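**User:**
My hope is that you can spare some time for a protein that puzzles me. This is the protein in question:
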Amino acid sequence: MMAGDSKVAKCLKDLPLRLQTPSLLIRKQIFQDLTDLLTGQDLPDNIIRGVCKVLSVTLLRYQDAASRALVLDFVRLCVSKYPLVTSKAVHAALLDSVGGWRQTAATKALAKPCLAGLAWSCAVVTQEALGEEGKKIVDVQAIVASVIFSSGAMKQVGKATRIMELMWTNQEIQDKYVEAILTLDPSINIAILGSKLVAFLAAKKSDVNVSKVKKFLLDVLTKTILPSKSKVSVVSLKQLSPFLRLLTHEEFKTLLLPVMTKAMLRSPEIALSAVGSILASMSLDLSVYVSDLSKTFSTNLRSKDDNTREDAIEATLALGRQCSDQSAVESLLESIFGVLNGSEGKISLNTMKVSLLTAAGGLTESGVTGGGVANLAVVATKLYVKFLEVEAHEGTLVTALEMLANWAAKYSNQIPEQFISWFPKGMALKTTTSGVRSAYLVCLACSLHTNTLSSAVPLIPSLSKVVDNAVKQSAQVAIVSEAVHAAACLVKIAGVDLATEQSLAELLTLVVDTEKCMFYQEKFLAGAGAAALQSLTSLITTLLISHVDKVGSTPTPMLRSLAICMMSSVSSVRRLAVKEVSKLSNTLGGAGIVTSLVGEVVTLLQTRQVVTDSQARGEAPPGGDLPASGDIPAGAVVA
């Protein structure tokens, strides 16, 4: 007996300190001694409790898989000999360690110790332990599981899911677990764990337990999360999607919608972000609820608080993505423009107008498909043109045209008459600046594809005027940028028929004259912004594909310009250039052109500096646009 006591004393002496050694060999020796002690004799409960308590120091200390496996194996050995004592001790130790992480922001680094803690917990869960301490066990697992699932660490998320599903597979444990989770105080952590549980139960068709957990989660959502007096993390709310996808129309209409509406009326600055996240995670078609939600969303798009407007945009777009009915999205659009046009009072702040315009532009990603999208594009165009007719602020006009460009890309057979008739007027207004004219031209370019080209023929005089103006003022980068946009449109329109191409013969002669044309000159290329280089890419590739007979045999300046676009410091320019060049490579004679282009890229790399990072957007001069050429980012070379 004395020998046994001395062995226990020797093994446990300074154990908390010795466990923190950085040496894997020493850690292995410590756990080998503990294993020998456990298997060699019966130990009193207080020794087991003491050892399990000090194991918690390894949660943050042990970062490698081998060390964590040592602890987990020892915990499994303990529970095999002393199941209830070990389970109680491990969960008491875990609660002491992770109890303070209930409100902690989840990170990938924190997910690793949480996964280790979850593995210990699941290893020691027994039916008896759940019967006695089910509340504590599920509470601990809720804390660590919410951190893991909200961290974005996919490897840890996958392991955590497998560990918990293996535990839930045991029907007796599953039933006790469900009983325990229903007794816990409602919180976002419990909701995340319950969401993963209900998804597992639904997959296994455990209908009785599904209905119990689902009802509990609905109560948590409607009585705790939505009425919360502080913002709930959007990342955490996204983890509720497995549960939210199981909701029925009846549950949404009778239980969720009234609480959402009440919460948004009381404190929209808090509730809107939660509502947006919930709507985005649902699988229901929400078209029938647009009339209930659109007014609140539209009103908050003109809030004085910046964050509330951002949340309202996200909520509006989430609602749009869940609507497949054209009339519902049309109603949402009209509600937004109603507020923009003053239905709830005149809007004087341009930031409010920008939020409303952005929300309307984002509805291009709605759930409507087929011909309904084109019909919506026509409706949106009418609304945007009506706004453009009365707006004078440059920044707001540019935003409106950028958002209209999203819709313009959805035109099916023709460009709406409202846009065609307004375009020359908008371009010719005395208050229209160079930036706004460029935005008009980019918007038009987005609308041009095979079926819509013929409807753009009436705009040829207006576009030609822009190019003629640049010929006279070829030293001004802003004016030449406008001309690049216009020329890119005209070259596409030239493909309508032979008569149209012949009427644009003078323009085509200009753009293929690589010596005289201002688009390929070094001064313009060095100062052009991202949008101008994108239009230049489109112009060059259209010429090389559709008008190659006019280009000539040595289009070196064109290819050099295209190489500059491919190596641009702006990723959007690079992506478009690579996409257009891939089209070019599939044409007759395209392989030879691409080979010459590669030569120009090599020359560019030899003459330009390659840098690890490109200039930040915030470093642009006030009111200016960063040149999109210049130093070549390393990422562009790798791509």
User: Anything to note?
Assistant: The chain has 36 helices and two strands. The radius of gyration is 32 Å. The longest strand covers residues 610-611. Strands lie at 610-611, 632-633.
